[in-house]
Amino acid sequence: MVTYTNPKTNESIETELPFDRVIELLKDVDNSFARSLYSQAIDRGLSGPQQYWAVKLVSEKIKEPQPVLLASDLQAFCSRGTLIQFKLPEYGKIQLRTMPKCINVYCGTYYYGNIIGDKYYSSRYAKDGVTAELLLLSLDPITVLAQYGKDSGVCCFCRRELTDERSVNVGYGPICAEYYGLPWG
Ligand SMILES: [Zn+2]
């Protein structure tokens, strides 16, 4: 563990990373200050205060949750309605709730993170198996949801029982089909 101190403010920060790794990771920090520090580090090395800032920027970057890239914009798909829900045999009930700026993911009562555009930011409770299911869903949302509906006999959007044969065939009812702009009957 090495401590870097900002002599101006006396704030300090610790890191286990070797300093050349810090410089390497600085390339992934997307702002002009980080880019300037990186090129100075390569050209002539960094001063004490600059080293402090390099470590600070990289530490903040590492703490950011890393999103999983989905195969399509699931936020746009889910936002056609308010709630999509289905059961996974291993994990139980999954809910995708439409919020103003994202889709919240729940598994049972646990918050599993959110979806923004084609990125899934999982929470620390999230399980890899559920992440894999969301990836699968993003590949072909309509087909996957329809299959959940067919398997369970209830609509994947509103959980109403599917009674009409045409609904059973597609996995959702006519009202939800219209709401989500999906083929039915
Ligand atoms: Zn429905």
Describe the structure.
The chain is an alpha+beta fold. It has two domains: about 1-65, no CATH class; about 70-180, no CATH class. It has eight helices and eight strands; from the N terminus they run ββαααβαβββββαααα. The strands form two sheets. It has a six-stranded antiparallel sheet. It is elongated, with a radius of gyration of 23 Å. About 25% of the residues are buried. The site of zinc ion has 8 residues, from α8.
Structural class from helices and strands?
alpha+beta
Cross-sheet strand order for the largest sheet: 3-8-7-6-5-4
One letter per element, helices H and strands E, the order comes to: EEHHHEHEEEEEHHHH
Count of helical stretches? 8
Write the layout of secondary structure elements.
Elements (H helix, E strand, L loop, with lengths): L1 E4 L6 E4 L3 H8 L5 H12 L4 H16 L4 E2 L4 H5 L4 E6 L3 E7 L4 E5 L2 E7 L2 E4 L5 H12 L1 H12 L12 H6 L3 H7 L5
Antiparallel strand pairs: 1-2, 3-8, 4-5, 5-6, 6-7, 7-8
Helix pairs in contact: 1-3, 5-6
In short:
Helix content is 42%, strand content 21%.
Key attributes of the depicted protein:
alpha+beta, elongated, 185 residues, two-stranded antiparallel sheet, binds zinc ion
